Amino acid sequence: MQNKKVEEVPRNLIEDMQTFLKFYEYGYHMLDSLVKRHLEGTDIIPQVTALGSNSWARGIFYFITTSDENAEAILRSDLIDKDSHQKLLDIRLKYRPVLNDILSLGGAVNRGEINPISSVRFSSKYERDDEISYLEITAYSGQREIFRIMQDASELLTCAESIVKTCSDSFEWCQRQGLPLRKLSIKRLDELQKELQNSSAQLSNIVQKYLTTRKQSEATTD
User: Fold this and answer.
1) How far apart are CA 14 and CA 187, in angstroms?
2) Which residues pair with 138 in a beta bridge?
3) What is the DSSP letter of 23?
4) Beta carbons of 21 and 57 less than 8 angstroms apart
């Protein structure tokens, strides 16, 4: 029975635990910050969802919310240093009451599926020439829409935090799945990229990758 439990724990999640231990101080600070914000009444689900794309977060979130049997199986793994056992158990004891309900959305954590975003659609509206006026980003979990934001492109910076919290890893997902991304104004994206330099590095990265893809696509077409 014990061996069966060990086999049920995804090896990649145990490896993610190794990553967490490598960046322990940073990860612990992030967990503590999440819990404090939650206790202050802040909705932390979007941030937790975005963090799900990071290996250190996947590992520790799983360890905190999984069953006692699976937690024990992780600690028995030869991939986890025995000197770290008590440290991990203390974290599980401290954060489990707060994070368990939040993270276990439909059992997603226990299936190793932290990030519920399955696809993202970019669309835009033009009012003059080639310059984008509005940018709409919609995120889906399966067929269900879970997030939508439509913003004046010149004011995109004001909604940067919301986009990052929900769509941090979604651009790469779209590329891997071969999903079509609507054309955005190259001129406007260049401007946005400059505006975002002092803002969120994640959102800036998303815009930059999209911009690079569009330029490469147009160069190929030409």
Assistant:
1) 45
2) 121, 148
3) T
4) no
* Residue 133 phi, psi dihedral angles, 5° rounding: -105, -40
Which tokens belong to 13?
């999640």
Q: How far apart are CA 113 and CA 107, in angstroms?
A: 9
Q: Which residue has the tokens 């505006």?
A: 195
The pLDDT tens digits of the residues spanning 91-123 come to 888 888 777 655 543 333 334 443 444 555 556
Prediction pTM value: 0.45
Q: Where are the domains of the chain?
A: 2-111, 119-221
Distance, CA of 34 to CA of 83 (rounded, Å): 26
CA separation for the pair 162, 46 (Å, rounded): 8
Strand order in the sheet with 119-128: 119-128, 131-141, 144-152
Which tokens is 49 given?
A: 């969802």
> What's residue 208's pLDDT?
52
